[in-house]
């Protein structure tokens, strides 16, 4: 065995000792990594995989790749400094560095501005100007809180009982998964979280979308809660599919009617991603699936008609989910071509940055910055306008402050919804909900939600829906 492989095995052994006590899945991940040769050439890193199944030019564009020192990368999240108007990728670490803070404001020239050791980095999330990190397992006081009011000089300011994964809602409720599920209130003191609810005994990951909590509870199933009162979640549905081995993580379609669940322990020929109709959460119905016999899915988020995924050894994948019951590959980029199978490669994906840049973390190769080509054609010529049946023609200006004008076209008189969503897929404003005549229509959004409150700087999505048509576009509010 080469000295390089011996070093890798030594590092893996240390990591397993650090995280001792975590369930077998965690150990399984690192055993797989130890058995692989993690070396990769620069040419491999920048090799673009063939375009999606259509055979046409792909929609994924690599903006930049940057190595992250410290012994391996885990998850990735984002932080936007509203004062300085700068974007940062927060990259978790599996070795000597817990969190790396990368300024990605210029996606062509990302810069590591700080690295924090002496904190865990298995999962990282941000709320306000604080980072919350966990070990990947339990542990009293092992979760850490980092103040990044100045991202170049982060300061460890607090702690909490650790978990496997974290999700934080916009209004400051932190959901910790495994062991069990716990809800902590970050208001009014973000460095002293207060537990307000707990349940379950297993757990793995969670998402909260439109006041609904999706508890991906490992082998126990997925549980759906009304989360209007975070201190008293109400169970409204559950998914226990005998073919789904491990309820790892997931996200809903933009309209909230479909739930996509990743199965990290799927065995071919079972699918990796299961799709359920949850329009009636009390009676979820499986309607679709997506699988790969040679790779394992990890994390998934949904932006409009696309699911963006970190797919371990297959890299970064984008699925077309315009028909949720039939997900199809739109494009892919292999972030670690030398890795074949197992839990190496693309670990995390973050698609909610104000710029639209998508961050992907790779265990062996650090941070990748991607963007997706706009797949909705802009229409400017009058003759072309007349040829369109229904179209969402964009917003101007974009980026905007404080308001923007949205234009759309209808071919016939139909009921229309034009809805604004935030980056997490939460509905914040219903601009149109009525029958409209055929022709061109315009409406101004003033940057306020349905309650009349000004929304913060960030990425927003506007979705046009009729009985037989649906499309979504992205816009950026700057202050």
What would a concise description of this structure say?
With 479 residues, this protein is mostly beta strands. Helices cover 8% and strands 44% of the residues. It has three domains: 1-35; 40-372, Methylamine Dehydrogenase, Chain H, CATH 2.130.10.10; 382-477, Immunoglobulin-like, CATH 2.60.40.
Structural features, described:
- With 479 residues, the chain is mainly beta.
- The chain folds into 3 domains: 1-35; 40-372, Methylamine Dehydrogenase, Chain H (7 Propeller), CATH 2.130.10.10; 382-477, Immunoglobulin-like, CATH 2.60.40.
- The protein has 4 helices and 35 strands.
- The strands form 9 sheets. Strands 1-28-27-26 form a 4-stranded antiparallel sheet, with no helix packed on it. It has a 4-stranded antiparallel sheet with strand order 2-3-4-5, with no helix packed on it.
- A hairpin with a 7-residue loop joins β24 and β25.
């Amino acid at each position: 065995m080469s000295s390089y492989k011996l070093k890798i095995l030594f590092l893996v052994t240390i990591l397993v000792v650090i995280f001792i006590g975590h369930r077998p899945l965690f150990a399984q991940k690192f055993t797989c990594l130890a058995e692989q040769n993690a070396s990769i050439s620069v040419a491999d890193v920048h090799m673009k995989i063939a375009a999606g199944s259509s055979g046409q030019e792909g929609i994924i564009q690599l903006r930049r790749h940057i190595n992250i020192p410290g012994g391996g990368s885990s998850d990735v999240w984002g932080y936007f400094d509203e004062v300085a108007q700068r974007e940062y990728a927060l990259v978790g670490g599996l070795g000597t560095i817990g969190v790396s803070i990368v300024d990605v404001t210029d996606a062509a020239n990302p810069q590591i501005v700080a690295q924090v050791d002496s904190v865990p980095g298995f999962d990282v999330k941000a709320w306000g100007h604080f980072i919350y990190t966990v070990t990947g397992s339990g542990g009293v006081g092992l979760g850490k809180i980092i103040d990044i009011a100045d991202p170049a000089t982060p300061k460890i300011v607090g702690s909490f009982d650790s978990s496997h994964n974290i999700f934080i809602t916009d209004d400051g409720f932190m959901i910790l998964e495994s062991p069990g599920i716990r809800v902590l209130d970050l208001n009014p003191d973000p460095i002293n979280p207060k537990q307000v609810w707990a349940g379950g005994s297993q757990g793995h990951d969670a998402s909260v979308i439109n006041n609904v909590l999706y508890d991906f509870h490992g082998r126990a199933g997925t549980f759906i809660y009304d989360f209007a009162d975070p201190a008293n979640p109400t169970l409204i549905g559950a998914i226990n599919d005998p073919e789904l081995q491990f309820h790892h993580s997931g996200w809903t379609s933009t309209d909230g009617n479909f739930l996509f669940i990743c199965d990290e322990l799927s065995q071919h020929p079972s699918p990796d991603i299961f799709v359920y109709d949850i329009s009636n959460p009390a009676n979820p119905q499986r309607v679709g699936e997506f699988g790969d016999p040679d790779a394992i899915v990890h994390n998934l988020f949904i932006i409009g008609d696309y699911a963006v995924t970190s797919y371990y050894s297959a890299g970064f994948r984008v699925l077309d989910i315009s028909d949720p019951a039939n997900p199809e590959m739109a494009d892919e980029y292999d972030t670690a071509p030398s890795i074949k199978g197992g839990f190496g490669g693309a670990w995390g994906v973050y698609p909610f940055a104000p710029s639209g840049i998508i961050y992907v973390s790779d265990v062996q190769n650090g941070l990748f910055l991607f963007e997706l080509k706009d797949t909705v054609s802009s229409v400017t010529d009058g003759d072309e306008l007349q040829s369109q049946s229904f179209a969402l023609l964009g917003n101007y200006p974009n980026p905007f402050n404080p308001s923007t004008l949205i234009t759309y076209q209808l071919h016939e008189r139909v009921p229309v919804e034009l809805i604004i969503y935030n980056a997490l897929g939460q509905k914040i404003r219903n601009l149109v909900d009525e029958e409209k005549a055929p022709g061109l229509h315009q409406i101004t959004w003033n940057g306020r939600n349905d309650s009349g409150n000004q929304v913060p700087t960030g990425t927003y999505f506007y979705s046009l829906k009729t009985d037989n048509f649906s499309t979504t576009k992205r816009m950026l509010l700057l202050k």
